[in-house]
Amino acid sequence: MANPNKDSSLPLCRVCREKPTIRAHLLPESFVREVFHGPKNDEKHMIVHPDTGLKFSSNTGRFEKDILCADCDNVLGTYEDFAFRLLKRLRTVEVGKKVGTRTDVSVGTYRFRVDVVDEFIRFACGILWKYSSTPSKAADHIDIGECRAIFEDICWRGAPIRRWVDVFIERDLFAFAAFPDPQQVYYYCSPSLGRRGYKTSHDLAWFSVGGFIIYVKLNQPGVSDYALKKCWMRGRTDCHFIVAMRSLEVNNSIHESIGMTREDLARLNKSLHAKFQSGELSPTRRV
Ligand SMILES: [Zn+2]
């Protein structure tokens, strides 16, 4: 008897090619929900594309309905949960002091340990796979060429992480400097692509979640000097993250985006704030 799923008109999962797809979040819901805006409850946030002026409201972030089945999405969920907990822990590491409007940052590398080797790299590859699997006309679609198939094997088929695929993380100093509480998260940024390096130059992808910028080396031969050797995480449990002023430039378009959405956010969350101020809603109670 034929597989009923294969006979249906529902799109099939791009990974297992057997089961029907679900609405899969491009960025895990946990990362979206931690974004801070007033009372941390069911507030809405805005998704903005500063280059096109496109903006729309969202509860739990953007999802794509034609890429993953529930089982394959769950596989990725394990890596995403690991990454979420790791970045939350690393945000508590003091990288500078904020006194009034003044921010003093101690640049350098900061040591940390991970429990499971390469789990974080699988997470980063999974995020890039999802954004490269959206329709090519989508505003946040990325084209990572051969890496899409390589990352699919890394995330879902247990493939070893190739020598020229690697990840490092850098504290997002724009988030640290521009917003009141360094341990909170105020925005996330979908992936960008570009060549980065000093004496060497490599194709990298990067995105921002949890107060960090995550850089991924896209299967390029040679040693990248965009981060010190000890910061590249592949094969390590003893790791280092970077604190460098260059990170201020990476997300500076956020400043413009905040200006574009200030009124939208106020309108969207008006009733929530009113309830909060009247005491009807507590910041820790869900309604
Ligand atoms: Zn599947």
How are the secondary structure elements laid out?
Blueprint: H1 4-7, E1 24-25, H2 29-33, E2 45-49, E3 54-58, E4 63-64, H3 70-90, E5 96-99, E6 102-105, E7 108-113, H4 119-132, H5 147-156, E8 166-171, H6 173-178, E9 189-196, E10 202-209, E11 212-217, E12 238-243, H7 247-250, H8 253-268, H9 270-278
Helix pairs in contact: 3-4, 4-5
Bound molecules: zinc ion.
What does this protein look like?
- The chain has 287 residues and is α+β, with helices and mostly antiparallel strands.
- It has a domain at 81-253.
- The chain has 9 helices and 12 strands.
- It has helices at 4-7, 29-33, 70-90, 119-132, 147-156, 173-178, 247-250, 253-268, 270-278, and strands at 24-25, 45-49, 54-58, 63-64, 96-99, 102-105, 108-113, 166-171, 189-196, 202-209, 212-217, 238-243.
- Helix 3 (70-90) packs across helix 4 and helix 4 (119-132) packs across helix 5 (147-156).
- The longest helix is centred in the first third of the chain and has 21 residues, at 70-90.
- The chain is globular, with a radius of gyration of 20 Å.
- The structure holds zinc ion.
- Zinc ion is lined by residues 13, 15-16, 19, 68-69, 71-72.
